[in-house]
Amino acid sequence: MSISIQLNLCHKQVLIVGGGNVALRKCQQYVNEGAQVTVVAKTLHKEFANKPIHIIQGEFETSYLQHKFLVYAATDDLVLNEYITKLCDQYGILCGSATRSKYRSFSSMQQYHNSYVHLALSTNEVAVKLSKKMVEKGMEHIMAVYGKKLALLQQIKNMIATQTYAQIRGIISLFTEDKLETLLQMLKKKRVYVLVYHGVADENITVHDTNRFIKQIEYEQSVCISCVASKNVSVYCKEYLPNVFLFDEVLKLASYCKDIAFYFDIVLIREGRYFHKLAKQCKSVGQLIPFWFQKEVKKEYIRKICTQNDDTCCIFVLHDFDEEFHIIAQQYQGLCMGLKDEIPEVTNKNIHLVPVFMSKGSHFIDDVLHKDIGIYARLANQNYHITTEKIPIMEQAWFIDLYKTRLHNI
Predict the structure, then answer these.
(1) pLDDT range class, residue 125, cuts 50, 70, 90
(2) Taking the CB of residue 327, how many other CB atoms lie within 10 A of it?
(3) Is 90 exceeded by the pLDDT of residue 224?
(4) Does residue 393 contact residue 357 with C-beta atoms inside 8 Å?
(5) Percentage of the chain surpassing pLDDT 70?
(6) Of 186, 198, 210, 205, the residue nearest 263 (C-alpha)
(7) How much is the average pLDDT of 172-200?
(8) H or E stretch including 274?
(9) Cα 46 to chain center, whole Å?
(10) What's the burial of 60, exposed, middle or buried (CB within 10 Å: 0-12/13-18/19+)?
(11) Calpha distance 188→36 (Å, rounded)
(12) What does 6-55 look like in DSSP terms, one character per residue?
């Protein structure tokens, strides 16, 4: 058994025994890698005279092995090659051979490389001459599939410190091309505005709706991205929506890419325990923008909806009951309830049902507005006349305007 490794031969002492075509190819390869090459042979190919090497014209001697890091037996004499590899095995010197030897410590592989990839292949002596064609085809396929991605990674590597790239390489090497393009923009603009969502396992919401919202508020002086914070939704996105940034990914980028200013805006409805958990993580690597749904914003939101539906009782449905929200709603003859709460007593038979959620996820569609299983159905069973708020907060004009202002005021 064997393992494939890359050797750094720069400034290393290398000995090649032999002066023919095989020795010439090996000599050129090692010289290209910066090795200090010595060639010993009785007769040598004329091209050796043009190489920056040390030449010994004569028989091989054991003393030539002294201080050598690597030796290659490239003669056409099987016995001599065996002898050299056996000596190297005894002395602990890396040694290869142009012919079979049980003592050789490495065998050469067919290689092909460009600016991004160094590809080496062996057919284990089954089809040596075919290996060149195989490695060329393999490189063609790799570059067709990964060429653009490798080019983007190289650009990123060129823009940041070596240590920083080493720290984020494991994360970003698995990024899609779209995410790498975004990271490049972050590095160029040096500031990023991060919208942190809970997230839902729905492509229309997590990708299309969110991207549309970002395009409506984006500001040319700052890169604007969204990321998903929910662990369960992150698992889904990693499998099915790879272009979506995950909260953990953004935190790692922010912790290592110190040249980029990260501004975090947690887009939740309530400033509860989950908010504060996310906020603590955000503040450890960047700047946290104040919670968007402050009391005054909340009051204006409730006032506007209640005023537009002044002949009804507006019932605002949140994930969980919110005391402050409820008090404000009562000022406008409205009510607040959580998803699992009992239907509050309402004397007005005209109800305007308002799901207070960022997007049209399952809570909005199924738990609140569904006419068979949602809160809507529970109200209908009590003979209320119901109208509904059909647009989630993220799609409402006032919310888009609010976030344009927030982004521009950073």
Answers:
(1) confident
(2) 12
(3) yes
(4) yes
(5) 100
(6) 186
(7) 96
(8) helix 273-285
(9) 52
(10) buried
(11) 42
(12) ----TT-EEEEE--SHHHHHHHHHHHHTT-EEEEEESS--GGGGGSSSEE
For residue 375, name the pLDDT band (cuts at 50, 70, 90).
very high
Distance between first and last Cα of the chain: 59
Q: Which of 21, 39, 33, 16 is nearest to 88 (CA)?
A: 16
- Residue among 398, 356, 353, 361 at smallest CA distance from 379: 353
The pLDDT of residue 359 is above 90: yes
**3-class DSSP state of 266:** strand
> Residue 89 contacts by C-beta under 8 Å, 6 or more apart in sequence?
95, 103, 105
> Cα torsion at 304, 308, 314, 320 (round to 10°)?
-30
Look at residue 116 and tell me whether its pLDDT is greater than 80: yes
**Radius of gyration from C-alpha coordinates of the chain:** 34
Helix (H) or strand (E) holding 387: strand 385-388
The rounded distance, in Å, linking the Cα atoms of 190 and 181 is 14
Question: How far apart, in whole angstroms, are the C-alpha atoms of residue 32 and residue 7?
Answer: 13
Backbone angles phi, psi at 323, to 5 degrees: -60, -45
Tokens (6 digits) for 184? 């490049």
Can you tell me whether residue 193 is helix, strand or coil?
strand
Residues contacting 190, CB < 8 A, separation 6+: 259, 260, 261
Whether 263 and 286 have beta carbons less than 8 Å apart is answered as yes
pLDDT digits (tens, 9 = 90+) for 306-315: 999 989 999 9
Query: Average pLDDT of 258-278?
Result: 95
Q: What is the pTM of this model?
A: 0.83
Query: For 137-174, what is each residue's pLDDT tens digit?
Result: 999 999 999 999 999 999 999 999 999 999 999 999 99
What one-character DSSP code corresponds to residue 382? T
**Whole-number Cα distances in Å, 84 to 31, 56, 57, 62:** 21, 16, 17, 8
Beta-strand pair 118-121/110-113? antiparallel
Question: Could you give the CA distance from residue 131 to residue 397 in angstroms, rounded to a whole number?
Answer: 62
Q: Which domains does the chain have, with CATH numbers?
A: 13-108 (3.40.50.720), 162-288 (3.40.50), 295-395 (3.40.50.1400)
Ramachandran class of 90: left when φ > 0, alpha when ψ lies in -120 to 50, beta otherwise? alpha
Q: Report the amino acid identity of residue 15.
A: L
In this predicted structure, the answer to whether residue 1 has a pLDDT above a threshold of 70 is no
Q: Give the bridge partners for 73, in sequence order.
A: 17, 97
